[in-house]
């Protein structure tokens, strides 16, 4: 991106003297004729600009819109992925099968919702709390910051792998510590449908806390210090300052946090896929899509139908929220 | 950022180089066929090279295969250009691989999985190869190599049986006898439990091991013919016979290792290695986990016990791996020669020398160098009346992976909910098998 930032898209922009420019001063007169030429776009420039605008547009259309519509269209067909001739129109049959007969579908929807609720209820406030503490410039705050943020840098698949070692029923850390790895005492963190979702959510929250912390920390850095001063002059204590002054000014951050969390909970996949492959108790829509589409003799139509359900859920959640937020911001 | 001494930006060269770079990358991206083989398949155009797509990404089989190809090149002067992909990736991409520009010859599995691609016209029939190699194979292998149209599509290389594995020293120490009937088997499980052993080691985290348990109990309870019908989607899962299979399974389920849905097969095998478990139902590849030579020598197996005397122990589950010819090979004559060579005992012996966990598919291969375990496996397979492959090879892979794997995991956790589970399986089976 920085390469683009440095390019003056309007050639005239090059005429403005650099702020506080210490370079060789050149008289404005000597530069004038040159700048007149620069204003005109040469053929080459036009081609270049056309490329710049055209290529991303083309890629965007081809990779986002065409594929999205193709996948919606495929949701109403059956197709095994072999030759376009074998695509067969089946109308709403995929959705009927999905809603009525798939024992994994409704649990998956439920788990995606639980995922969202847990991420909002636990790691988000925790991240905010950590951010507020770190914002006080306590000692070693950089060290804490790095430590809490580290899980966000690590790939989800790696997190899944590390935590399934922790939860391993025979040799895992937890069962070894509490002695639950002997016959008769087993705690099956990975396989037990009453436990595994919560076990995997601990791992997800562990990562999400750091993510939320960084977002809130950035938001807090942007809070005008004079607001704090003013509220302390008014005799507000720390909690009152936070509740009545700081938190309201964090509204843009809260929007981002909410949207990010919704996206995280809907696209949750890699962690669980590595953890236990989405076994009973941890079914997720994204995993159902993958299991149906990837592999030999794949059920592409059926998998697409699940993907469409996921798309509809995302739209239902995101669109009204963004509309109301942007409307409020425009009014403000 | 490029700055001139005057502090002005110099946009020209950097922007154009960048664009050229992007354009080049885009052109490159368009030229590489998406998801197809790794590009080096073009080199097979000359008559002296055959390209081969391989899923043998593990070190031991990869080396063994390389030795076979080297022997082939020495014999015929035809080079084999191998394109090896990760085992699971190969399997997941097989659809697009075969539709794109596949290699001339590729590794695959016998049974329904082979017939599926043969039926879709993605493989070439190789009856001419079989005229030469036919006498090397028993009838059961011939059956496994034919498509639904009766033509040959597959050259088997090696096979391995699924059986109950145990440690000879453990059986000796406690005075256990190898059970041949269901009643003896249950009694043995009870005795092992009393002796503080886990009777049957079990790990189903990857969801496929339970398919193997189902296969054994089902063809012992209902016989080979019903098992085949059930796998082909013809028989109903709500049939009382299937229910009987699950009743039998529920009877031995309490003797299985606890917490199985969170355990990998490797971890389960370790309990057999450490003598904490008495028995383990798996393929002979369980031997891979016995890294110590004395432990491996202590490993033995027996056929899954008889349940219904009218079927006895006549069926053996023996997944078979081998080779197929892609739909339009670039070097057909060379490929046929390669397949003929792969169907000889000579090629099989080269492979078996390197991988002692499997046995030759051919009956004419020399068995003198076999280990005791291999000899037993060989006898078990050659003495079998019927051979099955494995549920995900005998049935539609989409059905087994999206319906049966989660369903059996559910059964293992909650055997009482079997009736609703079976009607759910049957409903889903109908929709999957209805679509072709």
- The CATH superfamily of the largest domain in chain B turns out to be Periplasmic binding protein-like II
Q: Quick one: which chains have the greatest interface?
A: A-B, 60 and 59 residues
Q: What's the multimeric state?
A: heterodimer
Overall average pLDDT of chain B: 85
What composes the largest sheet of chain B? 6 strands, mixed
Looking at the structure, the CATH topology of the domain at 105-282 in chain A is: MetI-like fold
Shape of chain A: globular
- List the total number of helices of chain B: 19
At CATH level 3, the topology of the largest domain in chain B is D-Maltodextrin-Binding Protein, domain 2
pLDDT < 50 runs, ≥5 residues of chain A: 1-33
Tell me the radius of gyration of chain A. 27 Å
Number of domains of chain B: 2
Tell me what the CATH architecture of the largest domain in chain B is.
3-Layer(aba) Sandwich
Low-confidence stretches of chain B: 1-44
- Strands of the widest sheet of chain A, in order across it, are 1-2
Q: Please identify which CATH superfamily of the domain at 105-282 in chain A we are dealing with.
A: MetI-like
Q: Termini of chain A, distance in Å?
A: 31 Å
- What would CATH call the architecture of the domain at 105-282 in chain A? Orthogonal Bundle
Please describe the biggest sheet of chain A, giving its number of strands, its sense, and whether it closes into a barrel. 2 strands, antiparallel
Domain ABC transmembrane type-1 (chain A): 109-321
Subcellular location (chain A): Cell membrane
Membrane topology (chain A): Multi-pass membrane protein
Family (chain A): Belongs to the binding-protein-dependent transport system permease family.
């Amino acid at each position: 991106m920085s390469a683009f930032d440095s390019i003056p898209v309007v050639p005239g922009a090059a005429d403005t003297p650099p702020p506080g420019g210490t370079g060789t001063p050149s008289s404005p007169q000597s530069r004038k004729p040159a700048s007149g030429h620069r204003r005109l776009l040469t053929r080459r420039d036009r081609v270049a600009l056309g490329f710049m605008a055209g290529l991303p547009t083309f890629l965007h259309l081809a990779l986002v819109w065409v594929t999205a519509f193709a996948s919606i269209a495929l949701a109403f067909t059956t197709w095994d992925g072999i030759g376009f001739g074998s695509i067969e129109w089946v109308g709403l049959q995929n959705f009927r099968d999905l809603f009525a007969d798939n024992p994994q579908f409704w649990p998956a929807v439920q788990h995606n919702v639980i995922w969202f609720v847990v991420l909002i209820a636990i790691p988000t406030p925790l991240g905010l709390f950590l951010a507020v503490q770190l914002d006080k410039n306590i000692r070693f705050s950089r060290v804490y910051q790095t430590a809490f943020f580290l899980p966000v840098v690590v790939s989800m698949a790696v997190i899944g792998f590390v935590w399934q070692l922790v939860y391993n029923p025979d040799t895992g850390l937890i069962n070894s510590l509490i002695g639950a790895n002997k016959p008769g005492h087993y705690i099956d963190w990975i396989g037990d449908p009453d436990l595994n979702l919560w076990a995997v959510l601990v791992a997800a929250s562990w990562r999400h806390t750091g993510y939320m912390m960084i977002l809130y920390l950035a938001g807090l850095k942007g809070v005008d210090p004079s607001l704090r001063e003013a509220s302390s002059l008014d005799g507000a204590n720390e909690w009152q300052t936070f509740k009545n002054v700081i938190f309201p000014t964090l509204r843009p951050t809260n929007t981002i946090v909410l949207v990010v969390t919704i996206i995280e909970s809907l696209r949750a996949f890699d962690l669980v896929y590595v953890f236990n492959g989405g076994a009973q108790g941890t079914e997720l829509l994204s995993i159902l899509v993958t299991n149906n589409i990837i592999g030999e003799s794949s059920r592409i139509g059926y998998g697409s139908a699940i993907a469409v359900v996921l798309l509809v859920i995302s739209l239902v959640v995101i669109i009204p929220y963004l509309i109301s937020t942007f409307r409020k911001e425009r009014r403000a | 950022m490029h700055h001139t001494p005057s502090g002005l930006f110099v946009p020209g060269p950097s922007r154009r180089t960048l664009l050229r770079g992007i354009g080049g990358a885009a052109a490159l991206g368009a030229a590489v066929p998406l998801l197809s083989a790794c590009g080096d398949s073009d080199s097979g155009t000359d008559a002296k090279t055959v390209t081969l797509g391989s899923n043998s990404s593990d070190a031991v089989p990869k080396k063994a295969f390389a030795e076979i190809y080297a022997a082939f090149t020495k014999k015929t002067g035809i080079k084999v250009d191998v394109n090896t992909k990760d085992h699971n990736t190969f399997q997941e991409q097989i659809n697009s691989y075969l539709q794109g520009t596949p290699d001339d010859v590729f590794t695959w599995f016998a049974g329904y999985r082979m017939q599926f691609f043969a039926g879709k016209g993605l493989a070439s029939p190789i009856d001419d190869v079989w005229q030469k190699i036919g006498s090397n194979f028993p009838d059961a292998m011939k059956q496994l190599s034919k498509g639904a149209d009766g033509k040959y599509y597959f050259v088997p290389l090696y096979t391995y049986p699924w059986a109950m594995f145990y440690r000879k020293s453990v059986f000796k120490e406690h005075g256990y006898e190898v059970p041949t009937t269901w009643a003896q088997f249950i009694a043995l499980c009870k005795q092992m439990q009393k002796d503080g052993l886990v009777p049957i080691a079990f790990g189903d985290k990857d969801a496929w091991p339970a398919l193997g348990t189902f296969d054994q109990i089902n063809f012992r309870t209902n016989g080979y013919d019903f098992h085949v019908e059930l796998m082909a989607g013809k028989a109903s899962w709500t049939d009382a016979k299937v229910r009987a299979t699950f009743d039998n399974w529920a009877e031995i389920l309490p003797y299985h290792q606890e917490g199985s849905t969170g355990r990998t097969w490797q971890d389960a095998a370790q309990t057999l290695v450490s003598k904490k478990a008495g028995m383990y139902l798996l393929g002979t590849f369980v031997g891979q986990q016995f890294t110590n030579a004395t432990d491996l020598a202590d490993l033995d197996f027996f056929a899954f016990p008889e349940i219904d005397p009218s079927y006895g122990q006549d069926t053996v589950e023996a997944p078979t791996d081998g080779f197929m010819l892609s739909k339009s090979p670039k070097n057909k004559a060379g490929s046929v020669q390669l397949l003929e060579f792969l169907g000889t005992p000579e090629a099989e012996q080269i492979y078996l020398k390197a991988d002692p966990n499997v046995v030759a598919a051919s009956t004419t291969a020399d068995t003198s160098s076999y280990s005791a375990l291999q000899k037993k496996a060989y006898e078990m397979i050659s003495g079998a009346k019927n051979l099955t492959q494995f549920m995900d090879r005998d049935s539609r892979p989409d059905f087994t992976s999206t319906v049966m794997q989660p369903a059996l995991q559910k059964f293992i956790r909650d055997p009482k909910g079997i009736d609703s589970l079976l009607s759910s399986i049957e409903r889903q089976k109908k929709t999957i098998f209805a679509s072709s």
